[in-house]
Amino acid sequence: MHAGSAVAAAATFMWLGMVLAISFLEAPLKFRAPGVTLQVGLGIGRLVFRALNACEAVLAVVVIAGLLVGRTAAAAVVAAAVAVAMLAVQLVFVRPALTRRSDRVLAGADGPRSRAHLVYVGAEVVKVAALIVTGVLLFTAAA
């Protein structure tokens, strides 16, 4: 395996693990903990997802750099591009809407649930699939 491809594969699986652990494990479970109100859960979630998204951005850069210097199959590049695009959609379009909604809830407002949350989760599912495909293609191309 070329060093660039190895770095891209490692960063891909690290990114995948972080998304699975935070988005699909921590996020839903925190609201089940005793004494965690909606406001406390939202406050924690904002901090955690801000940190996650910063780490994801760094890992996306590492994956892209690894793909650029490695000998990589076009399919792996396309899959990685899908993951990066989903992250961009989340950061540029969905997170601002979620932040506005959580600002209102934290200020005590009530109202309908945000559809932006469903869009974020949908993008997470697509991103997870793209990261799995990217990582598997990087490993199988080296075999």
From TrEMBL:
TM helices/strands, residue ranges: 6-27, 47-69, 75-98, 118-142
Superkingdom per UniProt: Bacteria
UniProt keyword annotations, A-Z: Membrane, Transmembrane, Transmembrane helix
UniProt protein name: Transmembrane protein
Organism: Mycolicibacterium chlorophenolicum
